[in-house]
Amino acid sequence: MAFFKIECKGSSERDIRNIDRQYIHRIIDAIESLSENPFPIQFKKLRDSESSYRIRVGDYRIIYQVDTQKKVVTIYHIRHRKDAYRR
Known about the structure:
Elements: E1 5-8, H1 10-17, H2 21-33, E2 44-45, E3 52-57, E4 60-67, E5 72-80
Parallel strand pairs: 1-5
Antiparallel strand pairs: 2-3, 3-4, 4-5
């Protein structure tokens, strides 16, 4: 099975500093699992985007894009559900 490389943007690194500590371990596990399968059962495609998806971890959402040609998953945001979709 081909593995995907995980890249985190600076915005996602800043987001994780503001997350409640009890969720950080679960979020890290979810991100690591994206390297094996970037389209897990609970993923959803975001509207108005060709390659943006989200997965849910408790009250938090991980917003990411998948480049299947280059085998790269780019994490853009890790935010609480009330803030996840604001621009």
